[in-house]
Design brief:
Shape: elongated
Distance between the termini: 37 Å
CATH topology of one domain: Antimicrobial Protein, Tachycitin, Chain A
Largest sheet: 4 strands, antiparallel
CATH class of one domain: Mainly Beta
Number of strands: 16
Structural class: alpha+beta
Order of helices and strands: HEEEEEEEEEEEEEEEHHE
Strand content: 25-35%
Length: 247
């Protein structure tokens, strides 16, 4: 008898808590946007449909950010803001190959310069350029010194902060910075010397005096195909600037 009474009391408490939560929940039909986040779960939201409040789930891996915000359906990546502060997730992860959740950005299993963008469970492999590495904490490409646990680029094995010739080029070369290459160019009228590994006044054993000044910029655009074809994986010229689920 005592057990039955306890069960009844607990059930009543749960019903009371549920009713209290509903009372705290904003009515989307009384708001201008007609859409409000759920008071308890950050991956759910309410929308006014035909003057009735209806509950929806964000796509798996996303949380509610607000109407016309986020990446889709008013939902966003949870790490972009404090969307879940004081709230919890209603739904667990649904995983597919390379994707921890159906939507999100995830690190590569074997490469520090690559990562996966997942959209509805479909993974697309992406590449960090300019000698950058994928930073799991920032969910973006970052400078190598900010990323722990990754091997250095093989181009810079001999000297982590030295210069490396670029093929047969007389004015371009790789400059290793902390073990990662940056594509550089000698100043006008200088050439890269493969022996001293620096820009010098020509001629050298491999390069003659340039007939015209070498521009700092511009010829990469005109000869873009040749420049890009010489790039090793994970490096490029210069320093970079940095359907709804109804519940």
């Amino acid at each position: 008898m005592a057990t039955k009474t306890t069960v009844i009391v607990l059930a009543s408490l749960l019903i009371g808590l549920s009713a209290a939560q509903r009372q705290d929940q904003d009515d989307p039909c009384k708001t201008k946007s007609k859409v409000v986040g759920d008071v308890t779960y950050c991956d759910r939201y309410w929308e006014c449909v035909n003057n009735q409040a209806e509950l929806y789930d964000c796509p798996n891996g996303l949380v509610f950010a607000g109407k016309h915000r986020g990446v889709t359906e008013g939902c966003d990546y949870p790490w972009r803001s404090d969307y879940c502060e004081g709230k919890q997730l209603a739904n667990g992860p649904i995983s597919t190959e390379h994707c921890d959740w159906l939507y999100g950005i995830f690190g590569h299993e074997t490469s520090c310069t690559r990562y996966w963008t997942c959209w509805n469970g479909t993974a697309t492999e992406q590449l960090c350029i300019g000698g950058l590495l994928y930073n799991e904490n920032a969910h973006s490409c970052d400078w190598p010194e900010n990323v722990d646990g990754c091997q250095k680029h093989p181009l810079c094995n001999d000297d982590a902060n030295g210069n490396v010739p670029l093929g047969k080029s007389c004015n371009r070369y790789w400059q290793c910075q902390g073990g990662y290459p940056r594509l550089q160019r000698c100043p006008a009228m200088l050439v890269f010397d493969r022996r001293s590994l620096r820009c010098v006044v020509p001629p050298t054993e491999d390069c003659d005096v340039p007939t015209t000044p070498l521009p700092f910029e511009g010829d990469l655009e005109q000869g873009k195909g040749n420049a890009i074809s010489n790039l090793p994986p994970g490096a490029i010229q210069g320093k970079p600037s940095g359907g709804r689920n109804k519940n």
